Amino acid sequence: MIVIFLGPPGSGKGTQSALLSSKFGLKHLSIGQLLREEYEKKTPLGLEGEKYWGQKGINVPTRISFPLLEKHLSDKTGVVLDNFPRTKENLSVLTSFLKKNSLQVDFAFHLNIDKEESYERLLKRAKSDKEKFGAQRKDETEELIRIRQNVGYEKEIEPIISFYREQKVLYEIEGRGSISDIHEQIVKILKNYGQQTNRKN
């Protein structure tokens, strides 16, 4: 099973991806976390990627991001893709890879929150990170948050949403509820789908 979480910055993609991964034994692949880890390791991909996400607040080119995911996508236990694809190029490369390997996206969850809610959540997270760890994420300054919203998300998301809607795997989820309520909605969708599939068989 392959599940994708999409949504604006701060919408809860990482939290819901982690919860779903834990519940169903799926591998959680966060492209943001992978890019940050590569940067911390000072690998060539990590250093080049940081020039985009860390310095400009924009999406990292597919040639940098996709190799970090590719080796995990055929995991037999299934995967949860957290915030990928982000661009049309991401979508094209991912779709081609899955088709070539007889794989498919089973569910794409789009977590919806408004722009100001997104902004406030990220500022709150940055403040919390500073208090706990002494530093915030490089891309969570006020300036880069706005760029991530306007350029990284709003400018890029519609073709991706449209594609998965046409594939009949897209589910729109209101992201302003409690973490547990949102998780229960998502689990219910997966379980209902499983029950329908079993009845057909």
Your description of this structure?
It is a single chain. Helix 1 (13-24) crosses helix 9 (179-200) and helix 2 (31-40) packs across helix 3 (44-53). The protein is 59% helix and 12% strand. It has helices at 13-24, 31-40, 44-53, 62-70, 88-100, 115-133, 142-154, 157-166, 179-200, and strands spanning 2-6, 27-30, 79-82, 107-112, 170-174. With 201 residues, the chain is α/β, with parallel strands linked by helices. The chain has one domain: P-loop containing nucleotide triphosphate hydrolases (Rossmann fold, 3-Layer(aba) Sandwich). The protein has 9 helices and 5 strands, in the order E-H-E-H-H-H-E-H-E-H-H-H-E-H. The longest helix is centred in the C-terminal third of the chain and has 22 residues, at 179-200. The chain has a 5-stranded parallel β-sheet, sandwiched between helices. The protein is globular.
Please tag this protein with its features.
alpha/beta; Rossmann fold; five-stranded parallel beta sheet; globular; 59% helix; disordered C terminus; 9 helices; 12% strand; 201 residues; 5 strands
Summarize the model shown:
The protein has 201 residues and is of the alpha/beta class. The protein has helices at residues 13-24, 31-40, 44-53, 62-70, 88-100, 115-133, 142-154, 157-166, 179-200, and strands spanning 2-6, 27-30, 79-82, 107-112, 170-174.
